[in-house]
Design goal:
The chain is an alpha/beta fold and 343 residues long. The chain contains 13 helices and eleven strands. Strands 1, 2, 3, 4, 5, 6, 7, 8, 9, 10 and 11 form an eleven-stranded mixed β-sheet that branches.
């Protein structure tokens, strides 16, 4: 691990696998940041790409000499979570900014995110305003909802204060900034046994009493899910990743009393939704759910050990965390939103 350097405020970590088509545009946008280049570093973790990624990165280093770029070459594809954990070992900043390889950002992006954390110590994670480019569609993502059926603890709603939005449960791992201090409290950045990790990360931050917000002025553009779909092309595999992580996250982060109430509800509703998607997409998505369920069952002992560690260091009760969850599954939220758009 490198020594901390006080001049480096934020370390930008980019995990890459076969992202050659996007690298030039991403680094061009990073070269135009209003945050002085001496205040940030870029750690590029390559997961054994077999395209021109590293060749392009060598060109980038020459093209943008003002950028402080560190390239880490892995001998295998260790995935998103482990890739970011590895990048963190080389980070010197007091904040870590995570960016997907299939993105580019507006010129004030880093400065906006840094200012949010500098100005409010209660905020642990801040996400950016993502403009999603998904084939011919362009959408905006301001955060990610999460919910489980329950009666009590009403959802606080989405609240805007100036340019900050609060109320979405978790920030997407494709574009966020997090305090190093928070990572130290949690023990790690991502759980190395997860694939996506962002739900677990924000939940862990909330358990430590930190807020999770979105900065509407920190704008980034995302060629949606290219990174995931380049490795996991089938919807069954993509859904497996999501269910795998979500089941593990619920087991880890809820207190035992709440877990006994919430986990069966989540398993039942998520199974039903996977059946619905199997019919909708004419692909057996339910097999991804079944695979995720049995993986978590097989590894329950190890996950419960993590649960015990997390419960020992948590600062706030489930009742506080659940105020930022929907009182019903997020899948219903998106279904209702889609039906409203169609009418």
């Amino acid at each position: 691990m490198l020594e901390k350097n006080d001049s480096t405020i934020v370390s930008v970590i980019i995990v890459n696998y076969n992202g050659a088509p996007f690298i030039q545009k991403l680094f061009e946008s990073l070269s135009k940041q209003t945050l002085d280049s001496s205040k940030f570093e870029i750690i590029f973790v390559d997961n054994n790409s077999n395209d021109r990624s590293l060749e392009i990165m060598n060109e980038v280093v020459i093209k943008y000499p003002s950028l402080n770029i560190k390239i880490i070459k892995n001998e295998s594809n260790i995935g998103f979570c482990r890739g970011n954990n590895l990048g963190m070992l080389y980070a010197k900043g007091k904040y870590l900014a995570l960016l997907n390889n299939d993105m580019y950002v507006d010129s004030s992006y880093l400065e906006e995110l840094v200012n949010v954390l500098e100005n409010d110590p209660s905020i642990g994670i801040c996400g950016g305003r993502e403009i999603l480019h998904d084939n011919a569609r362009v959408r905006v993502c301001l955060g990610n909802p999460f919910g489980i059926f329950r009666i009590h603890n009403k959802f606080v709603g989405i609240v805007r204060s100036n340019d900050l939005l609060e109320g979405f449960f978790y920030a997407g791992g494709s574009s966020l900034i997090i305090r190093r201090e928070l990572i130290s409290r949690m023990g790690s950045l991502f759980d190395a046994d997860q694939y996506l990790g962002d739900l677990d990360l924000s939940w862990a931050a909330r358990l430590q009493g930190f807020r999770v917000v979105t900065d509407l002025k920190a704008v980034c553009h995302h060629f949606y899910s290219y990174a995931t779909k380049s490795v996991y092309k089938r919807k069954i595999d993509q859904k497996y990743l999501s269910y795998h992580d979500t089941i593990m996250t619920i087991i880890k982060n809820y207190s035992l009393e709440t877990l006994i109430k919430r986990l069966p509800l989540y398993l039942f509703t998520s199974m039903l939704f996977s059946l619905y998607e199997s019919i909708k997409f004419k692909e057996p998505v339910i097999l991804g759910w079944i695979k995720a369920f049995f993986w978590n069952l097989k590894n329950l002992r190890d996950t419960y050990k993590k649960h015990m560690k997390i419960q020992a260091i948590r600062k706030v009760p489930d009742s506080i965390v659940e105020k930022y969850m929907l009182p019903y599954p997020a899948e219903l939220f998106f279904l209702k939103l889609k039906l409203r758009q169609e009418n």
